[in-house]
Design goal:
The protein is 37% helix and 24% strand. The protein is globular. It has a four-stranded mixed sheet with strand order 7-8-10-9, with helices on one face.
Length: 233
């Protein structure tokens, strides 16, 4: 749905217990809950009637965070100042300085957002591969593939065959938050639902799962404000 000139992704969930349409705004983004046998045309009409309610509660476009030199961006929960090196060639590098952590970015201004984004994704993929395999080993399951996405309303998804998609923005969060999402998605290979058995499986591989879950609930929208370069949005 386009709100205030911005395309907003709205997750849809079908619920056997729902008696009517419900629009909510959890940390991961807008969520529309439908009764099991609802018609999609009625759901669209419901969304249209509530578009102003949703627009009033979403972060405004001016609050979107762009990847560019001159900003401060969290990497694994620690703020880094993004500084252009002034060189056209070279690699993005995270370094510690007397003034705090810095992310050095080469290239001209037009290409720097892509370079920052690609570096963040490489870091995210490394961490998420490692933690996915860690939890898969603890739960006795197999992860087939780990990929990154730029979803605006979810942190991850998992298929019954062990293919897992993660949101690249998890690299911005503290490590225990990324670890929680990895444990959550790997647990879906065991239980493809959110039953009590599923949550018991998450807790089995990550006993302090509530810590990461609570952090995402409190700060998830702040992470979602960070925007991928437009070609990836």
């Amino acid at each position: 749905m386009r709100l205030d000139g911005v395309d907003v992704a709205i997750a849809v969930r079908v619920s056997k217990r729902a008696q009517s349409f419900r629009l909510s705004l959890p940390a991961a983004g807008p969520l529309l809950t439908l009764p099991e046998h609802a018609r999609w045309a009625d759901a669209e009409a419901f969304l249209h009637r509530h578009r102003h309610w949703l627009a009033a509660r979403l972060p405004r476009a001016s609050h979107a965070r762009r990847l560019e030199a001159g900003i401060d961006i969290p990497v694994r929960g620690i703020l880094h100042s993004v500084v252009a090196t002034g060189h056209l060639r070279g690699r993005v590098e995270a370094v510690d300085t007397d003034h705090g952590p810095v992310l050095h970015v080469p290239g001209d201004a037009a290409h720097q957002p892509r370079r920052i984004y690609d570096w963040l994704k490489s870091q995210a993929l490394s961490d998420l591969n490692r933690q996915s395999l860690f939890h898969a080993d603890r739960l006795g399951v197999r992860v087939t593939q780990v990929r990154l996405r730029s979803q605006s309303s979810r942190w991850g998804s998992c298929s019954s065959t062990g293919n897992i998609n993660y949101n690249w923005r998890l690299i911005l969060a503290p490590p225990h938050v990324l670890d929680y999402v990895a444990a959550h998605e790997v647990a879906h290979i065991v239980e493809m639902n959110h039953s009590s058995a599923f949550w018991a499986t998450v807790e089995r591989t990550l006993p302090d799962m509530e810590r990461g879950k609570a952090w995402l609930k409190a700060h998830g929208r702040e992470l979602m404000a960070w925007q991928a370069p437009t070609s990836e949005a």
